[in-house]
Amino acid sequence: MSRPNTTAVQPTHSGAWVIQSWMSFILAVGVTALGIYHLPVDGWQKAFLGMGLLFSVGSTFSLSKTVRDQHEQERLTARIDEARVTKLLAEVDPVVLK
User: Fold this and answer.
1) Residue 88: per-residue pLDDT
2) Which among 72, 95, 88 has a CA at the least distance from the CA of 3?
3) Cβ(51)–Cβ(36) below 8 Å
4) pLDDT tens profile 6-34
5) Rounded distance, CA 55 to CA 32, Å?
6) What are the backbone angles phi and psi of residue 95, rounded to the nearest 5°?
7) pLDDT confidence of residue 1
8) Per residue in 20-53, is it b (16+ CB within 10 Å) or e — as a string?
9) pLDDT beyond 90 at 50
């Protein structure tokens, strides 16, 4: 007996979701940068806040990529383990077990 080959279906995002995600990101960063620009403080304080904004955005991208990579690695490891178990079960002779 062999198990049917099952492959995971990759969910895809709709075009509307992708556009909404990018627009909200651009709006959030843009409005925050505009707010920093119009603050009634010295230039060095605006520069400090701007650097903080850029570092926050950069670290957010790094963190999201790391989480995604870890999730994909766990899925790959699970598929490899499942293939090993399936191979071991296929090698078992049911006549010998009785």
Assistant:
1) 77
2) 88
3) no
4) 555 667 889 998 899 999 999 999 999 99
5) 13
6) -70, -35
7) 47
8) eeeeeeeeeeeebeeebeeeeeeeeeeeebeeeb
9) yes
